[in-house]
Design goal:
By secondary structure, the protein is mainly beta. The chain folds into 3 domains: 99 residues, Immunoglobulin-like (Sandwich), CATH 2.60.40.10; 97 residues; 124 residues, no CATH class. It is built from 4 helices and 24 strands.
């Protein structure tokens, strides 16, 4: 079972305008984001703080003056994270439309101790570490190729009254993914596991670094990355922005009328689910250009089923018979996304199936670009 991931992502945009037809938009310009990190208490510069855009390849460390520069940032909305041992994690949503200079960012000491009253340090590290890795890496075919390089910074606690195991780390975990060629810096803000359940809560911020490798290794990494990207939510929403979902291998379905959400026909409990393919014109009606260039709103009733297959020309008749199928439901009136395939209000949309089960070994940075998009 893959843990439920909580992400502090981006604010909901509520203003939109209707556009029936839209030409694909691209965002090729790169910009810088700069700023300065200071101590809340005395205003002194903070040195060597990690500053990064969540789930990306973009990061920097502050210098002796507390300043940083993030390079290669495209237009869009991002989660800016500041992390340093002993200080509270800082998160800010930023919108980039050009070179961006931020006001001074204040961070304060966290004042947190590991051995909180009422809890006991759990000395059975090996058992707890095995539990932690099982949920972090999931059941991916790449799990065995991922390794935590600094597990000693993990601190486990067990509450014998609530039967909850928690984990914390006061520094960034470093994880090597030898299947994709990424070194992942992982800021663990919460891991909570109820021993009578199999679904822990996991909250984190991460950024990626490219690993060095031989030409053969890099070619293999790129192949594995592309295999993951092809059926991903990022590829689907990027294609949806340009109305190219069928061309890249996605088929969209909805449950046929007179069939309940449970999959039974209203008049016959024995009848199986029937699906109706969502055609291009109908899909266009669900996607609206917002007032912000390169940002879109998705609206639909009930649920959509998105299936992927590598043979783009072959049809899919029943999405439930395809293991690369995800059921999408709206929690908010709209799901907002940009033309890079990034969901802007992730709390406003729910996935069930393939996309929900993505474990960390199959996670790509949001700024990953296959050759076809470069």
């Amino acid at each position: 079972m893959v843990p439920k991931r909580k992400s502090c992502h981006l604010a909901i945009i509520t203003l939109f305008c209707v556009a029936f037809l839209l030409l694909p938009l691209t965002s090729t310009a790169n910009f810088t984001v700069s700023g300065r990190i200071v101590n809340t208490d005395d205003g002194e510069a903070i040195t060597n703080a990690a500053v990064f855009l969540n789930n990306s390849l973009i990061s920097a460390a502050t210098n002796s003056a507390g300043t940083f520069i993030l390079n290669g940032v495209k237009s869009g909305q991002y989660d800016l994270i500041v992390a340093l041992k002993g200080y509270k994690t800082y998160q800010q949503t930023i919108t980039v439309t050009g070179a961006t200079s931020l006001p001074d960012i204040d961070i304060s000491l966290n004042g947190i101790t590991i051995n909180d009253e009422g809890q006991e340090p759990n000395t059975d590290f090996a058992v707890n570490y095995k539990i932690f890795k099982r949920f972090l890496f999931g059941q991916s075919i790449y799990s065995d190729q991922c390794k935590i390089l600094n597990p000693g910074i993990l601190k486990f606690q067990y509450d014998s009254v609530t039967l909850i195991l928690t984990a914390k780390a006061d520094k960034l975990l470093t994880i090597e993914n030898l299947a994709l060629g990424y070194r992942i810096k992982f800021l663990l803000t919460n891991f909570s596991y109820y021993l009578k359940s199999d679904t822990p809560e996991l909250a984190d911020y991460i950024f990626f670094e490219e690993m060095d490798g031989s030409p053969a290794q890099k070619a293999k990494w790129q192949t594995n990355r592309l295999n993951i990207y092809e059926g991903s939510a990022m590829n689907f929403f990027c294609a949806l922005a340009g109305y190219r979902t069928r061309q890249v291998g996605f088929r969209v379905f909805r449950v046929a009328e007179n069939v309940t959400a449970s999959g039974k026909n209203k008049n016959s409990k024995a009848q199986t689910v029937k699906f109706k393919s969502v055609r291009s014109l109908e899909l266009r009606d669900m996607v609206k250009q917002t007032a912000i260039k390169g940002r879109f709103a998705l609206i639909f009733r009930d649920s959509l089923y998105v299936a992927f297959r590598k043979d783009h020309d072959k049809e899919i008749t029943n999405p439930l018979q395809n293991r690369f199928t995800t059921m999408i439901s709206l929690i908010s009136p709209y799901a907002y996304f940009d033309n890079n395939g990034i969901i802007i209000n992730p709390d406003g949309i729910a996935f069930k199936g393939y996309w929900k089960e993505y474990p960390l070994p199959e996670l790509l940075p949001f700024d990953f670009e296959p050759a076809s998009r470069k």
